[in-house]
Amino acid sequence: MTDLPYTIVIGLEVHVQLLTESKMFCGCATRFGQPANTQTCPVCMGLPGALPVINRKAFELALKAAAALNCQIAPFTKWDRKNYFYPDLPKGYQISQYDLPLAHDGWLEIGCRRIRILRAHLEEDAGKSMHDEGADSPHPNPLPKGEGTEMGPPNALPKGEGTAFGSSAVADSRVDLNRAGTPLLEIVSQPDIRSPEEAKAYLTELKLLMGYLGVSDCNMQEGSLRVDANVNLHVNIPDGQAATPIVEVKNMNSFRAVERALAYEAQRQWDEWQTTGLRLGETPKTTRGWDEVSQTTRLQRSKEESSDYRYFPDPDLPPVTVSEAEMKRIAESLGELPGQLRTRLERSCGLTPYDSDVLVSQGRPLVDYFLAVADVCGDGKAASNWVQQDVLRWLGERHVDVDQYPVAPRSLGELIAKVHGGAFSTSRGREVLGLMVGEGKSLANAIASLGIAEVDDSALLALCRELVAANPKVAAEVRDGKLKGLGSLIGQAKAKNPNVKPNRVREMCLELIQAGQSPESRP
Known about the structure:
By secondary structure, the protein is α+β, with helices and mostly antiparallel strands. Helix content is 37%, strand content 19%. Strands 1, 2, 6, 7, 10, 11, 12, 13, 14 and 15 form a ten-stranded mixed beta sheet that branches. The longest helix has 22 residues.
């Protein structure tokens, strides 16, 4: 993008739902997909007299993520109330962290670039509003028949009356508070990202890291990972650069959507700059939502400033201190992170950066399977090829994890060792693997079932002489330097004896032809 008349400047706010069984400040379950408003209590509904209690597991998971993001962890942090009204925010405020976040000043490496982390703080999630704007449209998440929410039954407007917006059609909005109070870690990057593609790479690496740590499942379809993007342009002008007004983009439900939304927004801001010339500070920051159908961003509202939220310390929650011993324990619990694992695979197994990234991106169980295969066969590159081409294809077709693959890593490693040791060809090896996977045969039984046997050199030489003699035209082409003809001879050899080694057939036929064998010289 160096030829563009501007630089795209992107900062991402990522909300990661922590992998706990209960909510941030109460004991309600966090299971996804339960009937609406069945995982609530006086605490997460904000009823008078209910007092919150900090979820220790959530705090520890947040510390783990912060340490892995190379953040400085605060020895003292507190809780703040972020005040705003929204129908799915039952207390009228959100418990969050404002001026003393859990962690700050970290970084995440993507490729050869470090994206700085401004802060990471804990907070509770809001509930979920669901809107059905058509009178005859079924609600996507209907309540049980005949039941309403605690706020009243669905479609509660008097018959024939409309909404405050003047429509006579029923605008059915429902609130599900199951998600209210779910623990979130908000990870805020510095505006270091310079392209939509780089934003996607950052998110991909962040998601992978959270999965390796066991901090979150990061399932965007279930709302376990949500992304807001702040984007503007630094436009080249004669005396330097001018910054366009910052826009926050929301409602992006996939990394691909993030990439498309940022690309669209950059072009929209460039077009607007050429028309209005508005600069940062000359108009309020705005929020726009990504519309997947039209592939455009749409204006939602002017963005609130921190003063609008009237932050103040939560009087019901004590501050939290983190000792040096606790920080050390958390750091030691991280294990081998994705970047470290890629480096080890490249150095100890001889993999390319591409191959190591493919394996690591599949998760630690797949990497452990590969390492076990490589240890048995003694060839990391060969093990990587078989795992990527055969194991991953089988898993992908069935949408299952590697623990359901029917061939143990030792058996696959022994098969690869036989192929690369010359016992039989790669194609025959894949036939063997097919029987092991499809019929559950052992390696020895699969080999026996296919009738695979070693072909000694004397028998192979006789076969090659026969083929060269029977194909004088091919032999003549090979003598003229057209070696493609050898493929025909190899194919004929395999048809006569499936156990022949293609490379050995090629070598022998080439030697016979170069030696000048003709039909008359055949013994």
